[in-house]
């Protein structure tokens, strides 16, 4: 017989598929390799269930997206984990993540981790920075208790949420809190590099709320080079809103007259660091600069 489900795990060439009744361990037929299609966690699939225990993937349904390293398909929402310290908080990295996921048309919420490891003055400054992001439409969590209550309620039926963020930001620790029966490996921070060691080696989906949460390896470099430089402004949500008031429909918010984005930057209504990061990303994309791990 056949059934439909979601790939929730990948282990040594086997695919664990959650159907409406059970989790079925399957193999992929050779036709996928022939067609250069590699099934991945998050895929909606059709499987063949054999009474003798020989189960196969028959079909992978069209994906809405494919993100991450390793890949995760059909992501509905990203919980972006940014640490206050160890590794140090970076607005530039935050903006790169937000731009990348806006390009992928994936919604983002932000969680500030390790706030208890920094001083009160520094934490107040970080929260002030994050207030801006909340104001432009990104939900922000800066305490564990609030996140623990609201996250399961926020995940809709069969939605796939994933954690993302730089290595060492505390994603696996967060998973441990959310799923008490898990014991994901955690690791100390490499202080010499000010970044974490990769501790999560596979992608898995776990039931949370009415949908799923994925645990994925962290990464601190984002490849923005596939984005067209003249479309970059569309992925800064406040730029896109303001651009309807620019004199020129194709305004790039550089030296054009009567640019609403630049006017709001001067008034302090658009965060100056956001505009500066926009300029840096334009230069990187125009020059074809790859993040370090992709070179």
TrEMBL record:
Annotated EngC GTPase domain residues: 73-220
Main location: cytoplasm
Binding, GTP: 113-116, 165-173
Swiss-Prot/TrEMBL keywords: Cytoplasm, GTP-binding, Hydrolase, Metal-binding, Nucleotide-binding, Ribosome biogenesis, RNA-binding, rRNA-binding, Zinc
Top class in the EC scheme: hydrolase
Gene3D superfamilies: Nucleic acid-binding proteins, P-loop containing nucleotide triphosphate hydrolases, Probable gtpase engc, domain 3
Pfam families named in the record: RsgA_GTPase (PF03193), RsgA_N (PF16745)
Subcellular location: Cytoplasm
Entry note: cofactor: Binds 1 zinc ion per subunit.
SUPFAM superfamilies (UniProt xref): Nucleic acid-binding proteins, P-loop containing nucleoside triphosphate hydrolases
Positions bound to Zn(2+): 246, 251, 253, 259
E.C. designation(s): 3.6.1.-
Domain CP-type G residue range list: 64-222
Cofactor: Zn(2+)
Function text: One of several proteins that assist in the late maturation steps of the functional core of the 30S ribosomal subunit. Helps release RbfA from mature subunits. May play a role in the assembly of ribosomal proteins into the subunit. Circularly permuted GTPase that catalyzes slow GTP hydrolysis, GTPase activity is stimulated by the 30S ribosomal subunit.
Family, as annotated: Belongs to the TRAFAC class YlqF/YawG GTPase family. RsgA subfamily.
Subunit and partners: Monomer. Associates with 30S ribosomal subunit, binds 16S rRNA.
HAMAP family associated with the record: GTPase_RsgA
Protein name as it appears in the record: Small ribosomal subunit biogenesis GTPase RsgA
Organism encoding this protein: Lactobacillus xylocopicola
